[in-house]
Amino acid sequence: MGLVETIDPEIDKPVFRRTGFEGTKTLGEIDERIAAFIRKAREDKDLTRAELAPLLGLSMQVYGRYERAFSKMHVTRMIHLCEILGFMPMEMLFSAAPHLWGRTPEEARDTMELAQQVVSLPHGTKRDLLALVKKMVALERAADGAAAEPHKGEEGRL
């Protein structure tokens, strides 16, 4: 599964994680990346903490804890932030753990860019693209299967 045993200061026993491009980040470092992402997303919308917090039903002090990585964000709060600030959850997750999108930084960036481009397409185009991608995947799997089979007449040879 590509996991390594690691010790994280936030957890009192060993955990298994996937190593990122820059090593295995602690959960605290991931929280800091998420905090930086939401701060930038808020600033990109030209909102202050005082303007955004009430939209979330929070005080400015409570919201500020998210931007300082002091409080952990629940998924429901992340969804609410996506609705208000207009970003996709995958964008925030990518900022925190890009290694989940590919085996190399370049592959991860390409995967993320492709996903962002697809999201922006009109629905009809998405349906056509999905049909095309499904055909491409089926052809690739068939080619991989054919390459794995021994060629005719080669059975029994070592």
What is the global morphology?
flat
Give a short account of the largest sheet: 2 strands, antiparallel
Radius of gyration: 22 Å
Helix content: 55-70%
Q: Could you walk me through the main structural features you see in this protein, from its secondary elements to its overall organization?
A:
The chain has 158 residues and is mostly helical. Helices cover 59% and strands 5% of the residues. The chain has 7 helices and 2 strands, in the order ββααααααα. It has helices spanning 27-44, 49-55, 60-67, 75-85, 89-96, 105-120, 123-148, and strands spanning 3-6, 15-18. It has a two-stranded antiparallel sheet. α1 crosses α5 and α2 packs across α3 (60-67). The chain is flat, with a radius of gyration of 22 Å. The two termini are 31 Å apart. The model has no long low-confidence stretch (mean pLDDT 91).
Which features characterize this protein?
158 residues
Write a concise synopsis of the structure shown.
This protein is flat. It has 7 helices and 2 strands.
What topology emerges from the helices and strands here?
Blueprint: E1 3-6, E2 15-18, H1 27-44, H2 49-55, H3 60-67, H4 75-85, H5 89-96, H6 105-120, H7 123-148
Antiparallel strand pairs: 1-2
Helix pairs in contact: 1-5, 2-3
